[in-house]
Each structure stands twice: as C-alpha cells, then as structure tokens.
Amino acid sequence: MSPTQTSSPPAITLTIAGSEATGGAGAQADLRTFQELGVYGIVALTCIVSFDPENEWQHRFVPVEQQVIADQLEAIQSCYPLRTVKLGMLGTPATIDTVAAALKSQEWDNVVLDPVLICKGQEPGAALDTDQALKANILPLATFVTPNHFEAESLSGITIENIEDLKEAARIIHRESGAVVLAKGGVRIEGPDAVDVYFDGETLEVLSAPKVGDVAVSGAGCTLAAAIAAELAKGAAPLDAARTAKTFVTEGIRDRVASNAPFDAVWQGGAHA
Ligand code: PXL
C-alpha cells in the first residue's frame, strides 16, 4: 500500500553481511553507503564481530544461528521484489549453505560478492573450510566480485606483485567465475597510486587514484562493494558503477574517522558535510 508518492521509489538493495561492532566495516558500512548513494538498504545479519581491545584487537566472532539467518532472508525476500544483493562476511560453511539456498530461490540482476576470506589481523588459512565453501558455493552465483590483494591471489592461484599480475588475476577470476571482476591492489602494490583492475570479459580498465596514506583503512572493501551494488541497483552499467564506487571510497578514506583500534574507519558521509 502506498499513499501518493512525490518522488520515485528508491532501489531496494540488500546486504547479507556481518556486524563489526565498532561500525567501521561490515553491515554498518554497507548501510551508510547505501543511504549516501540513495538506495533503500536492508541487512540480513550473518555474524557479530567484536574486536577485543584487551587482546590486540583480535576478532571475537559469533555466527548468527542458521535458522535466524534463514528467517531474516525469508522475511526480506517475501517483502520486496529484490534484484540486487551484496554479500559481505558470511563466516562459516553452514552460513554459506544457508545463503546459497536463499540466493538460488529467486533470480537476481546483480549479486555483488565481496569475497571476505579473512579479516585484517587474521592469519591466512585460518578459515580454510570457509574459503573453500565460498569458492565452491557462492562464487558461481556472483555477477560481480571485488577481491582484495590477498583474495585475488587466493582465487586466481597466482602471486600478485605488480599491476600486470593484478590484470592476470582479474582475467583468471573472470574466466573461472564468469563474474565481472574488480581486483583491488589497495596499498599492497608499490607506487603512488591505489590501483584496481576492472575486467568484464571484454573491457579491461585500470582504475587509479592517489594513495591516501600507506595503511589500509577499515571498511574500504565493504564500502567499495556496497557502492557498486547501489549503483548497479540504480541501473548503472558495471564499469560506471566501478568508477563511481572508486571515487566514493577514495573520498571516504580521505574523510576517515580516527579510532583507538589499529585501523581508522572510512566515513561515507564526508562528501556532503
Ligand atoms: O572488512 C572485512 C569485514 C567484513 N565484515 C565484518 C568484519 C570485517 C573485518 O573486520 O568484521 C563483519
């Protein structure tokens, strides 16, 4: 039911993601991004991460019960005719199965996957079963994937030291997944610019912006993928969505919020402040 509307309705955009309690990353970053880019954001929560300030800000990770994840998705999918979803931290093989089943229960225009394999501060390989389940059960459903340096190495199987390697990784990940790829070099690749490689099977484009400091900022990956999802939900073409998202996240890193944790946090609202 809708009373007379004065403006066109916003594009409904779902994120299936975890809460990072300090708000820098995860669902909180996604929702701020959606709001800023003018789409109606919804979240289905997969887990709660609470950093431990008494223990070097290690991650305390609690998955949401599977039935509760399924219930959230049932409510959301019954409520709205969704066309666009962003996937953030899923966290366990069981959650990956629950989310994969919900994704397969309907058709999508855009499934934007931020393939969160490990979080900052975690040891590579800490969650090998989850990594494998993500590759086997979620990656094939993605239409757009945004691996960071570590995830691009893991998904492509090659070592990435420079932009040529990043291009090769983007090509491999596209070949194996069929998805549009934005492989992020971030601060990991040497040079004055933060470089990402876009590849959709035809167009290969290097997106570049001057680095803002040399330390990764919390929420940058979440914000980038959420911005891509928001732009796609509004009807943008994939390359335009990637370009807009890159500009948006670069601005958010410039406007970062300082914190007592080892990483500052992206601020999505700075541009219009
Ligand atoms: O930045 C990756 C990420 C995504 N989602 C959640 C997180 C993190 C990293 O801390 O906690 C919930």
Explain what you see.
With 273 residues, this protein is an alpha/beta fold. The chain has one domain: 3-Layer(aba) Sandwich (UDP-N-acetylmuramoyl-L-alanine:D-glutamate ligase), CATH 3.40.1190.20. It contains 8 helices and 9 strands. It has helices at 26-36, 66-79, 93-104, 128-138, 149-156, 163-177, 220-233, 238-254, and strands at residues 12-20, 40-52, 58-63, 84-87, 110-113, 144-145, 180-184, 193-199, 204-210. It has a 9-stranded mixed β-sheet, with helices on both faces. Helix 3 links the parallel strand 4 and strand 5. The radius of gyration is 17 Å and the shape is globular. The two termini are 34 Å apart.
Q: What overall form do the CA principal axes indicate?
A: globular
Quote the distance from N terminus to C terminus: 34 Å
CATH architecture: 3-Layer(aba) Sandwich
How many domains, in number, for the residues?
A: 1
Low-confidence stretches: none
Give the overall average pLDDT: 93
Bin the helical content: 25-40%
How is the CATH topology named?
UDP-N-acetylmuramoyl-L-alanine:D-glutamate ligase
> Tell me about the biggest sheet?
9 strands, mixed
**CATH class descriptor:** Alpha Beta
CATH superfamily: Ribokinase
Report the count of strand segments. 9
**What gyration radius follows from the Cα positions, in whole Å?**
17 Å
Class based on secondary structure composition and strand pairing = alpha/beta
How many helices does DSSP assign?
Answer: 8
The small molecules bound here are: 3-hydroxy-5-(hydroxymethyl)-2-methylisonicotinaldehyde
- What proportion strand? 15-25%
Question: Can you list the strand order of the major beta sheet?
Answer: 3-2-1-4-5-6-7-8-9
Order of helices and strands: EHEEHEHEHEHHEEEHH
